[in-house]
Fold this sequence. Notes:
Largest sheet: 2 strands, antiparallel
Number of helices: 5
Low-confidence stretches: none
Strand order of the largest sheet: 1-2
Structural class: alpha+beta
Helix content: 55-70%
Amino acid sequence: MKKIILCTMLMAIAAITFCQETNPTPPLTRTDYLLKSKKQKTFAWILAGTGAGVMIVAVATVSEKDAANYLFQTDNSAFNTSATLFAIGGIITLSSIPLFIAAGRNKRKGMRLAFKNETIPQIHKSSFVYRYVPSLCLKISLGHSKTNI
């Protein structure tokens, strides 16, 4: 039994060490982040609208008779259907919140990344020459300070 466990562990370690990615995915660019943000925000609005619509339908389908039957415990099947629809609409609406947050985060990431041509000095035949080098710029906001006057 010990030999089987030892062989299994050695095979697992060997598999992990040789399972490296040969074709890594390229890093996301500014347009990728902004497009992803736009798609997430669109889907979040669709979820929020659908959830609100389901909740409105649930409230509209409850009649006074159904509410009175529920209060007096005679027949509450129609009210339970409306309450279930209302709860499902609420869950759908609440599920849009994380998508709005993710869309904002991806938009901020996309706005921070930018490509620029930076000039750097290089030595060329014993003199300094300024050449353009394409570079990726990353904006890091350190916050703004408020001064009390």
